[in-house]
Each structure stands twice: as structure tokens, then as C-alpha cells.
Amino acid sequence: MSIGEMTAYAPISGSLLHFAARWLDPAAGFALGWNYYYYVAIVIPLEITAITALVTTWDVDPNHTAIYIGVVIVGLFVINLFGMVWSFRNCLCDTENYAGIKPGGLVISLGGGPNHDRIGFRYWKDPGPMVSTLEPGATGRFLGLLVAIVPAAFSVSGFELIAISAAESVQPRTNIIRAMKYVIFRLIFFYICSVIIVGMLVPSNYPYLSEQSPFVIAFQTAGVKALPSIINAIVIASAFSSANTCLFSASRILYGLAVQNQAPEVFAKCTDSGVPWVALMTSGLFPLLAFMSVSANSTTVFNWFVHLTTVCGLIGWTTINVTYLRYYYGLRLQGLVPRGVYRSPLQPYAAMWAAFWSVFYILISGLSVFFDFTASSFVSSYINIPIFFALLLGYKLWFKTEVKPLADLDFISNIPTLEQTQDEGLLSQKTPPLQKMGLV
Predict the structure, then answer these.
(1) Which of 62, 113, 185, 211 could join 108 in a cystine, given CB atoms 3.0 to 4.6 angstroms apart?
(2) How many CA atoms, within 13 angstroms, populate the side-chain half-sphere of residue 149?
(3) C-alpha distances in angstroms, 287 versus 139, 186, 221, 283, 294?
(4) pLDDT tens-digit profile, the chain (440 residues)
């Protein structure tokens, strides 16, 4: 809601990075830009590691892991140097796949599989939906819930990046509102419904749950022959598409930082067709981190990357919501009322709530480390915090930036009107019921 409301008010190129620099502190915009570059770049080896883990469904030979990693990396470079058509087509395939999986999962749960085993909510009773982690009993189940927050937050992080593309589209205010509604739909349909159905299909103590798609496990257990392999193939294609998109995004973020003089200007060099090849080649070094899974367990390496990217996302959410609070109170202090622009009735309390819990989840992201300490897990859980503050304080001290008083915040300059962005239709639109409730 926070980023959607700010982007609807000021659909400016760079959106969330620009907002942090404009309404919070230029140093915050700089640190946030590098934070998101790092976030997107780390997702690339994460997705490649996930692919190698999924391939073990067909090929369990660990000596082939490096080959699969190499093939994926080469494929990513080829696609990013010559176009991204495959990625967009695959996104459609991914959506269709997940839309079809859920009804299939319900059929299996109700006994429609070859083994005709009516599962229902059996696994919600035995072994139960929650497993004790770190400690036995109720304490362990509570700790398990906290530990599960990290992968859950990773799954939904990155949605705010929609604002960057929406702000540069035709009728940006209208499109950002539609994009935010899609996010709500995706959270409800793709995530919440998936979790419920997976909980019905697979017991929470299944030994190989971290190595395979739970839907693949469910259909295999039900005795379905070909479908598990088809689902696994499409999940792999989806992971490849995500890695491809992240490599594209990382190179463009680095290019954008160079254009804004927040990174060495060499990263702004492009080919004749406009591909920022230096930024692309530099971002292409991150996928090589996936080779760590050759010498270590792929699940362990995957968890390292999940912690790294999740904390990056939570830092981004915290910064965005703090920026929103200054935006909200700055508008109110200056007596400005956005004309025809999306505004949630839950604000500013939703931003306060989100900022508080984002900070809380950052602090507990390495909770399990304090029960079974390993240096690698501790570093992957908390290294992003000093990195972000080093960028923030370094830029602030070097350029001597200041946090402006709310009365001096700029809500006018270079912000197009509704007529200039062809969004004047928003003035005559009725407020949808869900928006009145603050749900979109």
C-alpha cells in the first residue's frame, strides 16, 4: 500500500529509490538502490541452486551438479544478450501451471487419485500443521513459526519492484493501482491457497520436503505417473525465468546507478542495441556463487541465499514504509490533498505496522543460529545489516546530506499532473469496496 500510494501520487522514473532520496534522505536513496541491486543479484544463484535441487528428481548423481549449473548460466547470458522473449512467454506458462495445480491438488485430497486415498485434513491432525523446531513441545512450535517467517517473507518479497515498471508505463497512476490489486490477488490465490492445499496433501514431517516441490511429492504419493515430472519441469522453467528476469533487472539497476553517478560510470556503457554489457557482465558474476552447491549440500546453500535475499527485502520494506510516513505527514503538514489519487484508509497505521514487523523479522532472521551456531549461517543472516548502514552512513558523511524538515519536503517539482499522464479518468471513478476497506 505504501509504495502504491506514493507511486500513484508521483509516477517518476526510479520510483521507490527516488522517493527515499527525495522524502527521507539522499543517503537512504543511495543505500536502497545498492540494497536492491544486491537483492536481485543474489536471487540469481538462489534460483540456480533451486534448479539443481529440483533436477535431482530425475538425476541423483551429484557429479552432474556442476554441469547443470554451467548450462543454466550460459543460457542466462545468451538470453540476456539477445532478448527476453522466452522469459515473458514462460511467465504465462507459469501462471497457467499454478492455476491448474490447485484444482488437481483438491482432487487428490478428496480421493480422486489412482490410489483413491481420501486424505482430506488428515495431516492437520497427524502429525499436525506445525512441527517443533529447536525446542520440544509448544515452545518448539512457536520457534518453528518464527523460523518459517524467513522463507515466507522471501516468497513475497520483491513485489514492490512492480512500482518501477508501472511508473514508466502509459497511464502510470492507473496501472500502479491495477498492479497493486494484482499483488493482493496473487497473495491470496497463489500463496495462501497453495499453503492450505499443500498442508492437506503433504505431512509436515515429510523427510524430503525441502528437496522437492510439495506438489510433486503429493502427486507421486497418490500414484500419478507422468504429472509429477511435468510439474517439476514447469517449476524448473519458472525458476529459470526468475533467474533470467533477475539478471536483466540487476544489470539495469546497476546501469541506472551509474547514470545517476551512484556507481562507476563504466557500468553505463552499452552495446549498439542498448544492452548495458558491462553491467550485465558484472551482474553475471553472481550466478557463479551457485557452484558452492557442488562442494556443499544444495539445501544448505539455498538456505544461505534465502537468508541473504530475505533480509535485503525486509530492509527495503522498512525503508519504504519510513519514507511513506514522512510523505504522509509532510503532505498533511503542508495542507496538500492528492487529487484523484489512490489513498488507503489504513494509512499511516499500516506503514507503522509494516515497518515495526519488518525490523522485528530482520532481528529474528537468524534465530536458529543461536541454538546451533555456525559462522556461515550467522553471516548469511545478519551481514546485510552492516552493509546497508555502511552504505547509508558512508554516503551521508561523504556528501554531508541532511534529513529535511517535513515542512520543506518537495511535493511539487517534476511531478506530472493527472492530465499529463492521461490519468484524469481516476477523478470520475468510484472507490471500490475493497479499497474502502483498505485491502487494495
Answers:
(1) 113
(2) 22
(3) 38, 28, 34, 8, 13
(4) 788 888 888 887 667 788 888 899 999 999 998 998 988 898 898 889 888 888 887 877 788 888 989 999 998 888 887 655 444 444 444 544 555 677 777 777 777 777 777 888 888 888 877 777 778 888 888 888 888 887 788 777 777 777 666 656 677 777 777 777 777 777 777 777 778 888 888 887 777 776 667 777 777 777 777 777 877 888 888 888 888 888 888 888 888 888 888 889 899 888 877 778 888 889 989 998 888 878 766 677 777 788 888 888 899 999 999 999 999 999 999 988 877 676 778 888 999 999 999 999 999 888 888 888 888 888 888 999 999 999 999 999 999 998 999 999 988 888 877 776 765 666 565 555 544 444 44
Helix runs in 110-171, H state only: 122-125, 137-156, 162-166
- Whose cell is 554451467? That residue is 70
The values of phi and psi at residue 118, to 5°, are -85, 105
Three-point CA angle 229, 235, 237, nearest 5°: 105
Question: In b/e form, how buried is each residue of 141-164, taking b as 16+ CB within 10 angstroms?
Answer: bebbebbebbeebbeebbbbbbbb
Strand, helix or coil at 210?
coil
pTM (2 decimals)?
0.83
**Cα–Cα distance for residue pair 242/45, rounded to 1 Å:** 11
In 3D space, the residue among 275, 274, 359 whose CA is nearest the CA of residue 316 turns out to be 359
Helix, strand or coil, per DSSP, at residue 110: strand
Element (H, E) at 105: helix 85-109
CB 389 within 8 Å of CB 406: no
- Tell me, what DSSP letter sits at residue 39? H
Planar angle of CA 426, 432, 437, nearest 5 degrees:
125
> Which residues lie across from 110 on neighbouring strands?
118
**Peptide bond before residue 348 is cis, with ω within 30 degrees of 0:** yes
Q: Is 193 buried (19+), middle (13-18) or exposed (0-12) by CB count in 10 A? A: middle
The 10 Å Cβ neighbour count of residue 380 is 24
